[in-house]
C-alpha cells in the first residue's frame, strides 16, 4: 500500500502541475499572485497517469497468458521465472525478462520488502481499499466502498472532525507514487505482475511440509536469503538482534488467505514462539470470512527475529475483523504492525484503540499532512511526525532520530513504524 506521490516521490516522478497544485494547497507557492491549478486539472492529469498504468498492465497480462511460471533456485535463493520473456508494449517498451526477484530493497527504510501492483482491482492492482479513491473506477463502482470508508472513519475518529465525503482530488490513492514515475515502466510493472500471479496461485498450493502453502515455504527461503545489511543498522537495534521487513511498499493484502499466509510468516520469525518447533494444523477452517491461524505447536523462539510493518487500507472491507482477530497481541501479533492508512491528506486514519481488545490486531494509524496543516492533526490524528527527511544524506529511517518516548528514545535510527504500535505516525506531504 503505497503513500501519496509527493511524499515519497523520486526525482522526476512528480509533474510540474502536481508540484504547483500541492505547493498552492500547502501555502508554499513561490510566486506572489501565482495562478494555482484547479482541482479538476490535477484530477485529469492523475487520471491519465492511472489509465497509462492500467493499459500497460493489460498489455503485459495478455502477453503472460501463454507463459509457464515457476520458482527457480540458485545460490541467491528463490526467484520467479517464466519460460519466455515478457516485453512491454510499443508505447512503453522493455527488453523483457525471464525472471524476477521475490524481494526488493527499500533504501529509504533500510529493509527488504515485498511489492505487488498498486491500485484498485479495476486497474489490475492488489489494493482492495483503493476502489473508492481512484478516478479510473467508475463513480457507480465506487459508491459501495465510499459508504464503508465513511462509516469506519467516523466510527473510529477519536476527537477528529467527521468526514463528510470521499474527494478524489484529495485521496492518497489517486496520487499513489507506486503508479507513476519509475513504478509505471513496463519493466517494474512486469516484475510486480509476475509476483502477483505467483502469489495468487501459491497460497493455494501445498508446501514442502504438511499444513503450509507453497507461498509460505518459498517466502521463508527468500527472507532467509535476504541481505538485511546489519552493518548500517543503528546499534541499539543490532545489539537486540532485531531485523526489519517492509511489507507492501506497493500493493496491499488482496485476500483473506493471503493475509493469513503473511501472519504465519510473521509467527515463524517471532522472538518467543517462532522458529524451531512451530507447526500449523493442516486443516484450515473458514471463520467469519477469514482463515483462522491454527497453530499445532509453538516454537522455541526464532534466533534472528524479524519485525514486520505493513500499512493497509483493507480496513473498509471484511478483512478489518479478520486482522483484528488473527493479529491480536494475545495471539502474538506484537512483531507484525499493521497500520490503517488515512484515506485523504490532512485527515485522520481509523483510530482503533489498541486497548480495545476487539481491535488490537491493528496498530495506530498513519497519516499524510501538509506542512501548514500539521498543527491541526498533531496529538489528534497522529502523535509522531516522521523525521526520515530531516537527515543530511537523503531520506532514511536509519538516519532519522527516533521518538524520545518510543523505541530508541531519541537516538539516531528510527523504527517507530515497526516497534511502537500505539504511536500514530504522520508523513509530511513533500513537494
Order of helices and strands: HHHEEEEEHHHHEHEEEEEHEEHEHE
If you compute it from the alpha carbons, what radius of gyration comes out, rounded to the nearest whole angstrom?
Answer: 21 Å
Report the uncertain regions: 6-10
Content-based structural category: alpha/beta
What gross morphology would you assign?
Answer: globular
Number of strands: 15
Tell me what the structure shows.
The protein has 431 residues and is α/β, with parallel strands linked by helices. The protein has one domain. Helices cover 28% and strands 14% of the residues. It is built from 11 helices and 15 strands. The strands form 5 sheets. A 5-stranded mixed beta sheet has the order 4-5-6-11-12. A 3-stranded antiparallel beta sheet has the order 1-2-3. Strand 14 (384-385), helix 11 (416-419) and strand 15 (425-426) form a beta-alpha-beta unit. Helix 3 (39-64) packs across helix 5 (186-202), helix 6 packs across helix 8 and helix 8 runs parallel beside helix 9. The radius of gyration is 21 Å and the shape is globular. The protein starts with a helix and ends in a 5-residue tail after the last strand.
In short:
By secondary structure, the protein is of the alpha/beta class. It has helices at 5-8, 16-25, 39-64, 139-155, 186-202, 214-225, 235-238, 256-268, 319-326, 374-377, 416-419, and strands spanning 69-74, 77-86, 97-101, 104-106, 111-114, 243-247, 279-280, 286-287, 290-291, 295-297, 306-312, 336-340, 366-367, 384-385, 425-426.
Question: Which terms would index this structure?
Answer:
alpha/beta; globular; five-stranded mixed beta sheet; 14% strand; 431 residues; single chain; 15 strands; 28% helix
Amino acid at each position: 500500500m503505497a503513500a501519496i506521490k509527493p511524499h515519497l516521490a523520486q526525482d522526476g516522478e512528480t509533474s510540474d502541475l502536481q508540484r504547483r497544485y500541492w505547493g498552492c494547497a500547502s501555502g508554499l507557492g513561490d510566486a506572489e499572485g501565482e495562478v494555482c491549478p484547479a482541482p479538476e486539472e490535477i484530477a485529469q492529469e492523475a487520471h491519465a497517469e492511472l489509465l497509462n498504468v492500467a493499459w500497460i498492465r493489460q498489455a503485459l497480462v495478455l502477453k503472460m497468458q501463454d507463459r509457464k511460471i515457476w520458482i527457480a533456485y540458485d545460490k541467491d535463493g528463490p526467484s520467479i521465472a517464466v519460460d519466455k520473456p515478457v516485453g512491454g508494449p510499443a508505447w512503453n517498451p522493455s527488453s523483457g525478462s525471464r525472471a524476477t526477484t521475490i524481494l526488493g530493497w527499500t533504501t529509504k527504510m533500510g529493509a527488504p520488502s515485498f511489492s505487488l501492483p498498486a491500485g484498485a482491482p479495476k486497474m489490475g492492482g492488489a489494493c482492495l481499499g483503493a476502489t473508492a479513491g481512484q478516478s479510473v473506477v467508475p463513480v457507480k463502482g465506487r459508491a459501495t466502498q465510499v459508504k464503508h470508508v465513511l462509516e469506519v472513519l467516523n466510527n473510529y475518529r477519536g476527537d477528529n472532525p467527521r468526514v463528510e465525503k470521499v474527494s478524489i482530488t484529495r485521496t492518497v490513492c489517486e496520487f499513489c507514487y507506486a503508479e507513476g514515475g519509475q513504478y509505471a515502466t513496463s519493466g517494474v510493472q512486469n516484475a510486480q505482475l509476475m509476483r502477483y500471479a505467483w502469489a495468487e496461485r501459491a497460497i493455494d498450493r501445498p508446501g514442502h511440509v504438511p499444513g503450509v502453502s507453497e507461498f509460505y515455504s518459498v517466502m521463508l527461503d527468500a527472507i532467509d536469503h535476504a541481505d538485511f545489511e546489519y552493518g548500517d543498522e543503528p546499534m541499539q537495534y543490532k545489539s537486540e538482534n532485531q531485523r526489519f521487513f517492509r511489507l507492501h511498499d506497493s500493493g496491499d493484502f488482496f485476500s483473506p488467505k493471503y493475509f493469513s499466509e503473511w501472519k504465519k510468516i510473521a509467527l515463524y520469525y517471532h522472538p518467543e514462539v517462532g522458529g524451531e518447533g512451530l507447526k500449523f494444523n493442516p486443516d484450515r477452517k473458514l471463520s467469519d470470512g477469514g482463515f483462522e491461524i491454527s497453530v499445532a505447536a509453538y516454537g522455541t523462539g526464532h534466533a534472528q527475529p524479524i519485525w514486520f510493518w505493513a500499512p493497509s487500507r483493507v480496513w473498509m472491507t471484511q478483512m478489518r475483523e479478520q486482522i483484528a482477530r488473527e493479529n491480536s497481541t494475545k495471539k502474538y501479533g506484537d512483531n507484525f504492525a499493521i497500520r490503517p492508512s488515512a484515506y485523504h491528506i490532512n485527515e485522520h486514519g481509523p483510530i482503533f484503540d489498541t486497548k480495545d481488545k476487539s481491535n488490537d490486531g491493528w496498530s495506530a494509524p498513519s497519516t499524510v499532512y501538509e506542512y501548514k496543516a500539521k498543527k491541526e492533526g498533531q496529538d489528534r490524528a497522529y502523535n509522531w511526525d516522521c523525521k526520515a527527511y530531516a537527515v543530511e544524506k537523503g531520506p532514511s529511517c536509519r538516519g532519522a532520530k527516533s521518538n524520545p518516548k518510543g523505541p530508541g528514545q531519541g537516538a539516531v535510527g528510527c523504527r517507530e513504524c515497526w516497534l511502537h504500535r500505539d504511536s500514530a505516525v504522520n508523513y509530511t506531504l513533500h513537494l
